[in-house]
Design a protein that fits this description.
Blueprint (H helix, E strand, L loop, with lengths): L1 E6 L4 E7 L8 H14 L2 E3 L4 H15 L4 H7 L3 E6 L2 E9 L9 E3 L5 E3 L5 H14 L2
Length: 136
């Protein structure tokens, strides 16, 4: 799990904190970690150069115990979690792999859910688990 920050050029990059939670973590622990990542996300960060992308991804890759983003992407599911005016949007994605015309993660917006941030980390954790189950 990691935070994401929006660059001044308008695209999102992985950012810290990056954490690996044990599979036995409770939904409340998961929700709390997601809230921490959301609060660490930033807007208007400096747009990284191609070489700086490697440095940005290094903490996440180290935690995942892989050497490259493409290796991670070949086997990882991605769930986007975004703060909005109405609450927290939890969105599953489809993994198109690391090469070819369909590469990258594709949002499954029609399967997203909205969580009331005031209800606490338990409800957010439940929504994230449900979204991961819909990732393909």
């Amino acid at each position: 799990m990691h935070a994401r920050s929006r660059t001044s050029a308008g695209f999102w990059v992985a950012s810290v904190p990056a954490r690996l939670l044990p599979l036995k973590s409770s939904v409340e622990e998961l929700g709390a970690a997601v809230m921490e990542a959301l609060s660490a996300s930033a807007y208007g960060v400096q747009t990284p150069s191609r070489d700086e992308h490697r440095e940005l991804h290094a903490p996440l890759l180290a935690i995942a115990k892989v050497r490259s983003w493409s290796t991670l992407q070949r086997s990882a599911a991605l769930c986007n979690v975004m703060q909005s005016a109405g609450g927290i949007v939890v969105e599953p994605t489809r993994n198109g792999g690391s090469s070819g015309d369909e590469r990258g993660y594709h949002p499954l917006s029609d399967q997203s859910s909205l969580v009331d941030a005031r209800l606490g980390p338990n409800n957010l954790g439940v929504a994230v688990v449900a979204a991961f189950e819909r990732c393909c």
